[in-house]
Amino acid sequence: MLETITTCPICSSTQFREWLQCTDHLVTQEQFAVQQCQQCQFLLTNPRPDPNSIINYYKSDSYVSHSNKSNSPVNFIYRLVRAHTLKQKLSLLNRYALHGNLLDYGCGTGHFIKHAQSRNWAVKGIEPDSEARQIAGGLVGLENVYQSLDGFTQNSFQAITLFHVLEHVHDLVDTLSLLVNLSTQQGVILIAVPNFRSHDALKYQSDWAAYDLPRHLYHFDSKSMLNLANKVGLKIVAQLPMHFDSYYVSLLSEKYRKSSIYPLRGFYSGFISNLKARRTKEYSSLIYVLQKK
Length: 293
What we know:
This protein has a single domain (2-292), classed as Vaccinia Virus protein VP39 (Rossmann fold). By secondary structure, it is of the alpha/beta class. α1 packs across α2, α1 (73-96) runs antiparallel to α7 and α7 packs across α8 (262-280). It is 35% helix and 24% strand. A seven-stranded mixed β-sheet has the order 8-7-6-9-10-13-12, sandwiched between helices. It has eight helices and 13 strands.
């Protein structure tokens, strides 16, 4: 069942305009709309599947964060690079956060928290998907992976991470506010999201794989992330690139366009996107390091 958003979650405006139409390339081939708030320019998928229906749009072995089954060339490359990106994420975490308790919200199959646990972080993971949660529990212990935030106490975590998760969350502001309460005063929250201002987003338009409708409910740029941070009492300490994402997203986007040489075209497009972003800072995905004000 679809639900229609009538109020912008960031600025409470009720005025929206059409941004573009995208196809669900992963599961259903249905068309979904991205709309833009006329007041703050935030982008959101609208209308969208409600919380009870959205699970149907994740039922694909190609959805690599929830499954280890897919052997497609794109996901093979993803898994090949994953070991390197896990080290990068942990290095970033160690740079900004005091060592201690880590909560990974939307931990998927648990590879990041497993890596952090092996480096002496006390880890907890939140994962609504039952299959992914079982896989993660097998890596870090079932007692460390939960379905929801119920039962956690305030000021519990020195670090909270959301790597390509926030764009999937129906209750955007309430969920982020709850995570802020779980963070210690000096704790950090790391949020990684796609950036629709990037060169690859502008190139591929409705075929840009990081729109990923309808699974991505919100679509961010630096301005909307700053507005959201201010709304929940956070400040942005740093904004950093995720270089690999431009290649992965461009590969998928070329595949969606049915290019016969999509690996070559995707790699070239990802390279050009990163090259242009060295000047504009508009990388395909960005990591925001946030703290309480």
